[in-house]
Amino acid sequence: MFTQICLETIGLVLLRQGEGVTDAKEISRCLFYNSRQPLLTTSHTILEEYSAQFDHLNARWESYESWRRLGDLSSSLFALGYHQQLESSGPIPPFLRSLRQAAFACSYSADKNVSIFLGRPPRISRKFCHFRQLSLDAYYSYDWAADSQLDLFADTRWAALCAILKEEIIVELFGEERFDNRVEKASRIQNTAELQWSSLPKHFRLDMPMKSCDRSAAELDLMLGIKLNYLHVLFLQHLALVRRVSEPDTQLRNIAQEILSLVVEAVLFKDHLVHSGTSLTWKVVYYGLAAAGVICLSLLQNQYSLEHELAAAPKILRDLGVLVAEIEYGTLVYKEDANYALLAGATQTIKNILDNISRSKLDQRRLNVQAPDATAQDDPELDSASWDLWGTGNLQDFDTNFWLMLAEHPLTFNT
C-alpha cells in the first residue's frame, strides 16, 4: 500500500514537471536542432522515418495523438475512481487526496478547453462526476479562505470551477434551440461566474496593469490565467446569445477587447512571466485568437456604418498590430512549432484588415485636407510650403522639435 502511494505521488509530480519542460528556452531549442542534424546525414535514415520523428516531436494541441491521449486520460480517471467523492475514499494521506483532486480537476478543465479549441465534444461529463460545494473545505466550493495561497493547486481548482460553467454553456446554451430559454440560462451562468470571481481572494485577482503588480513572475502568470479563464466564461456565455456570429453585439465585443488587451499585455510583458500554469502561446491561441476573431468580425461588419469609428478604437487597432508583429517576427512562436500555421494564417488575415482600415482612414483624411472649406484654404498651417521642414535647406535630426512640428500636421490629428 505504501509503495503504491509513493509511486502514484511520484508519477503525478513528474507529470506536472513534464508539462513545464515543453516550454524550453532558446538555448535548449538551439541545442535540440544541433543534435537533430545528424538525422539528415545518416544513410540509414530514410525520409519517412525523419518525417515521423519530426511529426512526433511537434505533436501538440491540434494533433490526433494529443486528442487520443486525452481520451486515454479520461478513461483512466474513471477507472481509478477519481471522478467520485475523494473525501471518503479510504485511509489515504491528505496530501495524496489533494493530489488526486488536483489531477482530476486539471484533467477535467483540460478536457473542456481542448474540446472548445478543437470544436469536438468533451469526454468527461459532469453528470458522471461528483462535485461537492457544501463547505469551505470542499474542493469545488465557491468560497475561499482569505489567506489561501496562490499556487498551482489554487490555479487548478479555479480552472475546474470555470470548466464547470463552460460545460454548462456548451450543453445548455449552445444546445438550446429556444432563444428565451437560452437567455434565462445564460443569465444564471453569468451570475454564477461573477459570484465566483468576487469570491476569489483579492490577491488572486488581476485588477491592475501587470507592470504595476508587485508580485513574483510565477504569481503574475497564475493571476493572468485566472483572469483569462473568468473572461473566457463570459465570452462563451455572450457568444451563445448572439443570433449571428458575424454580427457580434456590444457586450461580446467589449469582453473580446478586454481579453485581447490582456493577452497583448502579457505578450509585451513575457520576459517578466514564468509559465507556471499554461504557456503564453496557449493563452494567445486559445484566448487571444478567439477575441481577435470577434473584433475582426466587428470591424468588417461596421466598416461602412456610423459606428465604425467607435468599433475601430485606436487601442484595439494598436493591440491587433502588436499581436501581428509579435507573431510575424517570430518573437512568440517559431515556424517549426505545431501551432505556427494557425497563428500565421490568423495573423495574415488580421494584417489585411488593419491595412484596409488604415488605407481607408488615411485616404479620407487626405480628401479632407485636399478639399477644405474657403476659410481653411487661407490657413497658413495647411500650406504645403510651411511643411517643407526637412528639405535641403532645413535638414532635421529627428529631434524633439521635429516631432513637435510633425504633431501639428493635419493628417496626424486624432479626429
From TrEMBL:
Determine the domain of life of the protein's source.
Answer: Eukaryota
Q: Name one GO molecular function term.
A: DNA-binding transcription factor activity
Question: According to the UniProt entry, where is the signal peptide?
Answer: none
* Keyword check for Metal-binding: yes
Write out the annotated subcellular location: Nucleus
GO CC annotations on file: nucleus
Predominantly, its location class is nucleus
Q: Does the keyword Nucleus apply?
A: yes
**InterPro entries under this entry?**
AtrR-like (IPR050987)
Q: Which keywords fit this entry according to its UniProt record?
A: DNA-binding, Metal-binding, Nucleus
> What is the protein name stated in its UniProt record?
Transcription factor domain-containing protein
Organism, as annotated? Fusarium oxysporum f. sp. cubense (strain race 1)
